Amino acid sequence: MNGNDEDPAPTRPRPVSNGAELHEQLAIHGGAPIRRTPWPTYDKGAVHVCAEDEEAAMRAIRSHLYFRYDHRDESETECGQFEAELCRYFGTRHALAVSSGTAALALAIMGAAVPPGALVACPGFTFVATPSAIVLAGCRPFLVEVDDDLRMDLDDLRRRWRPEIKAILVVHMRGFAADVAALAAFAAEMGVPLIEDAVPALGAELGGRKLGTFGVAGAFSTQSDKALNCGEGGFLVTDDTTLFGRAVALSGAYEGRLRRHFPDTEPPVDGLNLPLLSLRMDEIRAALLRAELTRLPERLTLFHRNYAQVSGALADVAEIAIRTPVAPGAYLGEAFVFRVPDGDAGWFARALRAEGIDARNIGADDDLNVRAFWNWRFMYDDTDPARIRATLPRTARLLAETVDVPLSSSLTPDDCDELIRAVRKVAAASTPAASGTEPTGPTPVGAEPVRA
Ligand SMILES: *Cc1c(COP(=O)(O)O)cnc(C)c1O
């Protein structure tokens, strides 16, 4: 995946170097790559797990009590304690650990009693799990354009509002806070619940308040690519006791187990009125997550440090547009996402990969990225990506311009520095200014430009 092998030999003569550092030979043109070791990502094992976490998982394994609902009191189970710790961390009344982030999203929608068949608005830029969770909850996704910073665009939602929309599902995509306060106010005006897909922003804050606590419920994942990692898993947080009760029953708290989540009061719902979907978490993963949660602040500091280093050092690069946070620091920092507004982002990402950096152009034609809405084909009767793109033209254009680089919390300042140098090198070679007089546009002869 990583390296030069996927990039064929250049199909056009290389620009002649004038010797300035700007004209350093690109690896995609046969020059020396900035980096020769793999870019650290979770799928290559770059995760934040330590010996205490392993011990915690072993404690649960040795107990032989793997199911969360057994003879023990709720306060003695790993899942029960994890949920209590999540309530303290987020400052919410309730938390429910479940089997995945997608499950948490679907349970939040069903818990909010959004009627089956209703439209649920969500942004056109998110991971495919968001619209999939809407489908899992028996509803239909209604896609909304994103703005230049790739956030759900409230103006577009307002303009295209339809009475069939019964909930808004906002996403803090790639860790950047959406304008969730404005969206919450709009949802209240329309009389529908706002639910947060806060999966990519676990622990990030906006104005001193944790993302995931602005809507009626916030959903999170603990899959390995997220800020808490137990392989697979998720949870939801909420202050809404009825929503919580419904989600608990739906997740699989059968025959009185619902009661365990309401030690001091009657459960707000009768579990027999709801189907049992078996989306529970188990004790081994909850034990691992409890240990990781104690070190989450440390990990968040690393994400922020990496992102600040990279975005700060590249702020003056004219060829790229870095996302502006909705408020200072309102991001997690687990990815460096930028646009190449006037260039070829597909070429830019390929050139970065040749330099040894994992980079993807989200809207690339030759890379089936499931963060691009035209690849959510299950949603459409149409099979023509061009016609699907035309349904959200601005989002389609912006994603065609977007490059995505994962920023693992395991990156060192030297790793970040290599990313910075690689982006500068590729950016310098991508503009006419790089050769003085001759334009040295990167698009190989015969290739289709990304933008008309
Ligand atoms: C990862 C992700 C999910 C899904 O989480 P799973 O635990 O894999 O189901 C949902 N939404 C977003 C934005 C994600 O990045």
UniProtKB/TrEMBL annotation:
GO terms for molecular function: pyridoxal phosphate binding; transaminase activity. It holds the Pfam family DegT_DnrJ_EryC1. Keywords: Pyridoxal phosphate. Its cofactor is pyridoxal 5'-phosphate. Residues 429-452 are annotated as: Disordered. It comes from the Bacteria. The keyword Acetylation does not apply. One of its GO terms (biological process) is polysaccharide biosynthetic process. Belongs to the DegT/DnrJ/EryC1 family. This is dTDP-4-amino-4,6-dideoxygalactose transaminase. It comes from Micromonospora matsumotoense.
